[in-house]
């Protein structure tokens, strides 16, 4: 039974890749911690998949010396992608294990057809010192 489920999942994944539409998204912003650039903060752009399918990593990067970042990526999906940005940081975190994580959902109007994001979502300047709705801790990103 497990083998049938695995084969079915693989078949659906392959079919999606073969007949899906290539879609892209991108996001830029600036991260600060207590008024200073948040240097080296990891950011990841995902296609948020719900259900049995895991989220698809579209791109990842880190903030530069000024706290700035810009990433974009693409994914093949039959239905519209649901891009989201995950930010992993230690601002005002002391010695707690793992990193703080929060998510910003990218509006559908920033989804482009093809492999190149034609419209980049500007997340603006984000002060990491505060707390964010849905914030969690992540050790395995």
From TrEMBL:
Keyword Endoplasmic reticulum assigned: no
Keyword annotations from UniProtKB, A to Z: Secreted, Signal
Signal peptide residues on this chain, from the entry's feature table: 1-17
Domain of life assignment: Eukaryota
A Pfam family that the UniProt record links to this protein: TTR-52
Family, as annotated: Belongs to the nematode transthyretin-like family.
Subcellular location: Secreted
Main location group: secreted
Official protein name in the record: Transthyretin-like protein 5
GO cellular component: cell surface; extracellular region
PANTHER family named in the record: TRANSTHYRETIN-LIKE FAMILY PROTEIN-RELATED, TRANSTHYRETIN-LIKE PROTEIN 5
Nucleotidyltransferase found in the keyword field: no
């Amino acid at each position: 039974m497990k083998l049938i489920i695995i084969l079915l999942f693989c078949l659906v994944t392959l079919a999606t890749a073969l007949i899906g539409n290539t879609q892209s998204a991108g996001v830029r912003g600036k991260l600060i911690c207590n008024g200073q650039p948040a240097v080296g903060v990891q950011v990841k752009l995902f296609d948020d998949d719900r259900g049995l399918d895991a989220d698809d990593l579209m791109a990842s990067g880190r903030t530069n010396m000024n706290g700035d970042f810009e990433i974009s990526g693409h994914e093949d999906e039959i239905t519209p992608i649901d891009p989201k940005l995950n930010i992993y940081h230690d601002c005002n975190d002391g010695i707690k294990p793992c990193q703080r994580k929060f998510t910003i959902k990218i509006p559908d109007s920033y989804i482009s057809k093809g492999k190149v994001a034609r419209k980049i979502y500007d997340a603006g300047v984000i002060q990491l010192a505060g707390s964010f709705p849905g914030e969690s801790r992540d050790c395995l990103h």
